[in-house]
Please model this.
Amino acid sequence: MAVVGSDAATASGAMLAARREIDRLELVLSGWRDDSELAALNRSTGAFRASPDLFNVISACESLRAACPGAFSGRLGSIESVWKSAVDKGVTPDGTDLTSLARAAEAANVRIELASHTINRNGVTFAIDAYAKGYIVDAALAAARRAAPNVAGVMVDIGGDVACSGSAPAGESAWRVGVANGGSAENAAPMTIVAIENSAIATSGTGARDRLVGATAHSHNLSPLTGAPSSTRLVTVTAPSAGQADAMATAFAALPANKAVAIANARPGIEARIVDAGGAVFTSVGWSSAIQPMRSSPVRYQVVAPRAGTARSAAWPAGFEVTINYEIPVVQAYRTKPPFVAIFITNEAGDLIRTITHLGNRPPRYLDSNYVWYRAFAAHGGDLAAVTRPSRAPGQYSAVWDGKDDVGSAVAQGRYIINVEISREHGGHSLQAIPLMLGAAPVSGAAAGQTESGPAAAHYGKAQ
Model:
């Protein structure tokens, strides 16, 4: 989250208000929690009197389902459960069974009564994350604005769903948000930079949140018609609100790319970029107008010089980089959620040289969950890039360090520590440290898996 044009106390008040709103709505809309209001609705029989927020979200999901038939549905809870069981057992679900569940959910007579705020689900199990996450972003942004009405601008980012209001940081005509390139390296440079003004952006795609069934990865995006995973590689949508952006990104992933672009073109304020399963790129008519020039540090809101690194010696060899491979394991535990991941470089004294990447569904509330990184990060001010990308599910990932520090200066040869820190809400904490002497020759190192992390490895050498 970022607040522009305010003193520290006002900014803190705005952030606190946003965090409280996120916490409040989690108790209402969470599909993870057994004690949420959504869970109570899914257990109900007959008419269920819903709170205004749950009623609004369910109503919006039903409206989007009608507007995007076969592409968007908040009724896929039973199918989500089948896929969760498939991941646990390592057996891919039967396609016929999935289609039968999908047809039953679509045919169900869900009744929504505006006057009484009641919902009769008629056997449907609601799964509303595809809209609820964006709804929470919008609500958190509004809460921050109410708490600090005189600030120049506010940006809220929850796991890659980004909404911006008001003025961008000094020197920028609009908020600049990087769109992940979908490459193998977690921290690969954004494929493009998009300007956001009083609007929102969301990304959905394969790879990041795939369901791993045995050795096969399946997209988390499901077809409302068949219950089968989508094959679309990456969808990025800009819209007037995060709720709309979130929902349209999900819907477009379930459609042929040309049809999704046609829908975007017909909807005011909606722009989209879609990469299909074969790698072909499709964009809406107005997408190009939002593209911004790339810079060496395109999406940073401030630049804070790190402490002095390793004593200067020979220069880092041209063309060399450090490839970092890490694994988020499957953790079988109650209320398990995607973890928070920090990959960072320190010198032998523990000074932070470079934050390679930080991943988390709900920053900034849980930044300090990765407390080793956070202590070093906070020691000389915070500077996170806002890059919209899907959050991370269990699987193997990689990141790359190009030999530069946090202000873009090349570091010298010397001894550095590659750190992989992973923590999990309602879970544990792991820190893997791989010391490497980075000189003129290639070198590799590794660290064993821990409670929240699989094996990690680092290789220094010529870029592949």
Observations:
- The longest strand covers residues 414-423.
